[in-house]
Write a structure and sequence with these properties.
seven-stranded mixed sheet, binds pyridoxal-5'-phosphate, alpha/beta, Aspartate Aminotransferase, domain 2, Aspartate Aminotransferase, domain 1, 16 strands, three-stranded antiparallel sheet, 2 domains
Length: about 375
Amino acid sequence: MTRPYNFSAGPAAIPSEVLEQAAAEMLDWHGSGMGVMEMSHRGKEFLSIYEKAEADLRELLAVPSHFKILFMQGGGLAENAIVPLNLSRAGVVDFVVTGSWSQKSQKEARKYASEVNIVATAEETGFTTVPDPASWTVSRGASYLHLCSNETIHGTEFHQLPDLKALGSDAPLVIDFSSHVASRPVDWSRVGLAFGGAQKNLGPAGLTLVIVREDLLGHALPTCPSAFDYKIVADNQSMYNTPPTWGIYIAGLTFQWLKRQTEGGLTGIAAMEQRNIAKATLLYNAIDQSQLYVNKVAANCRSRMNIPFFLRDESRNDAFLAGAKERGLLQLKGHKSVGGMRASIYNAMPLAGVQALVDYMREFEQKHA
Ligand SMILES: *Cc1c(COP(=O)(O)O)cnc(C)c1O
């Protein structure tokens, strides 16, 4: 089925093939006589869904065996508390602030850590850059260093994760990869823990993915809720309490879809990365070559997933959005804190969708020149 192109930042588009399969299986999953939402999470049917989802994700993201994959709830914002509850040891924690999300994260961590050290911030550039690790002053003995590897609102992305050891820090790196998970490979040798909500690039809201190095388990503060203690969650295969079964199922179908994707002889995440580069390049070039549109992010920090842009004549914003909607280009309005427009072009957005947007942008510019 062809549908309009959906540029929502999240909850965001899910591949039609995934939704069609879920629809076909809604009332009766694989002859079981039950829909997935109606199954016991401990029954053999759901366990098979869970195990396949976990194995497929591990393969796709090349997650090493000394990392645990946890399927939790609460979203990225709950992780802002759950991470310090598990990893801070009530000591010093380091933060890199590159926008709204990492700003929120460091505020929340102050409830649990004895000290929050901002090792770098991009505030002075209006969050149009990511600070060069060479300029960071890391703390001695920090429990972890947190950064948001793709800032969904400002449209900046770390294209390389920092090597904290080279900066003189033994702290594990914690990344919030909510809005670019599965869009590119992850260098696990530099990561201690990665977390992300599913609703941007993996599936429906309600599922939170946590991938954590085993040696970081078992250090939760005594006040940490049991259901949020990573060790308890890991020891119970994410079934200490009822996991978000529907979210795991849809994410699992998305993982299968990702494994089927090919691009230039590549498959899976490597294929997605090539496609995502092509999509982002097409849109950034169209913006940079126009007289009407502008993106303010430094060229080497631009996100491949979230592309904010402005009309130089802001009085035309409503006309732009109305015309886009007529063309089947949905949810392009920018975040309220930034204004303008934002095109989120996650994995489920095909190149043809970005081409349709670029065609519309050119036509709109000519009409209003
Ligand atoms: C969307 C988003 C969040 C918020 O997650 P919730 O599921 O709403 O708690 C956190 N971090 C980043 C980078 C996001 O893009």
